[in-house]
């Protein structure tokens, strides 16, 4: 919002937000998600002269006036609710319960939601209300690009629908109703506190507002659909820089005449395209060289733009599945979808680097595989939890960890250089592998195991010391360690090895939790 306002108005808005904004949080409901977002949106709209009164779809409670008298106990900070308020609360709960029951019965009838919206032309940002609405709408559409932020759209859609409805922006309110059908139930009553007529509003056509279109609100999904057409005709007016950057990557990667010339860029992004993309001065020439390069393929251009725009792996992973698959098909354009998802046969990639670069790439791949492989113990612990009955004649089976790789096609064994961090990673991985195996044994309330079986499992020469320590810890979690011989406990602790000591002490504590047994375990 600050970016689309004049400098003096932006400074005034930030100053009011920091110094004189109301304490909105006291009026929010108890279980509200994203309270800061609701507070910020309401503050911005009130600064623009749009005050939304009590709204059943918004989490605001009715504010109390100073003239209301309440009965308060000596130790009660919050005023007591009157009998009328308690009765209204019961009626609201009953109506909500009845509406929920009807919805599940398939006989629901949509009831109108009456909302009072007050307009104040003396508000400091009332003359820039369309710029403010356009900025909030741009953020609303940008959140569609992030699966982690998509839920925020449902938090502010009623604010946007109310504001655009009273301002007469039918294209915007219709777009919100098409995505959130509950907006169609809202009926707005406009009131003026400044003595002007209800329809006396600043005209959006009186002066052009940057990045705002009255009749054609920006829609992410429409823009993506139009990019897939052979000829690029739509503009990205009303979008944020993040959306514009991603759609530029898609437009360049799709090729076939899209963004091939500077006129195409002007038609899509405007003449100030570098400003729309928020490029630094040193980035303008680089981005232009990438987009208009004759020696690169569309896939190579897309990869170069992704790097230049600073898109990370996390950003790409959070994209909606449809856009993520489209971007993946562009980047990996030299492969078919069948080849990309064929995991049964190895995919060979020709390395053009030096031996040192190849060795470094192999170590990075094996290091990532290590982390994923060692983390499988946690999932296996949940999957096999207390599913094994112990055999007194055999030690508990513990799956082996294979942390070596075999290079194709030479079949040479490849191991990582064990640095100090990797050594700790391997030891703790083996420890949790033992914990996962030990947790597969049923609890002490199902089967009784003796000291001999515990010693047989712990002293097996087929497992490493960290794995044996993990078994001890798991046996303690399942309640079997009280059967461990006290002399053997002392022998394990006297070895001064950190893994057995930690496992035995914590496991014994878990086995004896709540028993009030004062006898020391050593």
Automatic annotation (TrEMBL):
<dbReference type="GO" id="GO:0031145">
    <property type="term" value="P:anaphase-promoting complex-dependent catabolic process"/>
</dbReference>
<dbReference type="GO" id="GO:0051301">
    <property type="term" value="P:cell division"/>
</dbReference>
<dbReference type="GO" id="GO:0007091">
    <property type="term" value="P:metaphase/anaphase transition of mitotic cell cycle"/>
</dbReference>
<keyword id="KW-0132">Cell division</keyword>
<keyword id="KW-0498">Mitosis</keyword>
<dbReference type="GO" id="GO:0070979">
    <property type="term" value="P:protein K11-linked ubiquitination"/>
</dbReference>
<dbReference type="InterPro" id="IPR024990">
    <property type="entry name" value="Apc1"/>
</dbReference>
<dbReference type="GO" id="GO:0005680">
    <property type="term" value="C:anaphase-promoting complex"/>
</dbReference>
<protein>
    <recommendedName>
        <fullName>Anaphase-promoting complex subunit 1</fullName>
    </recommendedName>
</protein>
<keyword id="KW-0131">Cell cycle</keyword>
<dbReference type="GO" id="GO:0060090">
    <property type="term" value="F:molecular adaptor activity"/>
</dbReference>
């Amino acid at each position: 919002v600050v970016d689309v306002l004049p400098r003096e108005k932006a400074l005034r808005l930030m100053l009011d937000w920091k110094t004189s904004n109301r304490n909105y949080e006291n009026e929010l409901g108890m279980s509200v998600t994203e309270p800061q977002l609701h507070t910020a949106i309401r503050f911005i709209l009130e600064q623009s002269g749009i005050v939304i009164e009590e709204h059943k779809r918004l989490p605001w409670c009715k504010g109390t006036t100073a003239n209301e008298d309440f009965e308060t106990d000596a130790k009660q900070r919050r005023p007591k609710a009157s009998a009328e308020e308690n009765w209204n609360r019961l009626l609201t709960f009953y109506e909500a319960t009845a509406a929920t029951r009807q919805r599940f019965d398939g006989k629901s009838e949509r009831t109108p939601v009456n909302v009072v919206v007050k307009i104040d032309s003396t508000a400091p940002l009332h003359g820039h209300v369309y710029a403010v609405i356009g900025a909030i709408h741009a953020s609303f559409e940008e959140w569609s690009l992030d699966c982690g932020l998509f839920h925020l759209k449902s938090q502010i859609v009623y604010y946007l629908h109310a504001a655009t409805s009273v301002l007469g922006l039918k294209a915007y309110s219709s777009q919100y109703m098409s995505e959130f059908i509950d907006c169609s139930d809202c009926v707005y009553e406009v009131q003026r506190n400044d003595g002007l007529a209800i329809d006396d509003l600043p005209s959006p056509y009186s002066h052009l507002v940057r990045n705002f279109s009255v009749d054609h609100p920006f829609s992410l999904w429409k823009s993506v659909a139009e990019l897939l057409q052979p000829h690029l005709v739509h503009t990205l007016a009303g979008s944020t820089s993040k959306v514009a950057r991603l759609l530029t990557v898609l437009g360049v990667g799709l090729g076939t005449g899209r963004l091939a010339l500077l006129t195409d860029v002007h038609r899509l992004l405007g003449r100030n395209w570098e400003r729309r993309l928020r490029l630094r001065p040193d980035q303008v020439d680089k981005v232009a060289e990438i987009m208009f390069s004759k020696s690169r393929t569309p896939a190579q251009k897309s990869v170069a733009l992704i790097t230049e725009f600073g898109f990370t792996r996390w950003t790409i992973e959070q994209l909606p599945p449809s856009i993520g698959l489209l971007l993946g098909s562009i980047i990996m354009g030299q492969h078919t979808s069948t080849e990309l998802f064929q995991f049964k046969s190895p995919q060979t990639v020709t390395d053009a680097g030096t031996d040192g670069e190849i060795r470094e790439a192999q170590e990075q791949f094996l290091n990532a595989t290590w982390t994923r492989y060692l983390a499988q113990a946690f999932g296996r612990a949940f999957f096999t939890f207390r599913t094994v009955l112990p055999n007194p004649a055999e030690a508990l089976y513990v799956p082996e960890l294979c942390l070596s790789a075999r290079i194709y096609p030479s079949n040479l064994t490849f191991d990582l250089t064990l640095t100090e961090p990797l050594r700790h990673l391997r030891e703790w991985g083996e420890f949790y592998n033992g914990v996962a195996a030990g947790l597969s044994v049923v609890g002490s309330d199902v089967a009784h195991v003796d000291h001999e079986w515990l010693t047989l499992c712990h002293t097996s020469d087929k497992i490493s010391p960290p794995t044996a320590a993990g078994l001890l810890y798991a046996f303690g979690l399942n309640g079997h360690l009280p059967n461990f011989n006290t002399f053997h406990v002392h022998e394990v602790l006297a070895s001064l090895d950190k893994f057995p000591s930690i496992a035995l002490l914590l496991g014994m504590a878990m086995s004896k939790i709540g028993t009030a047994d004062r006898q020391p375990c050593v």
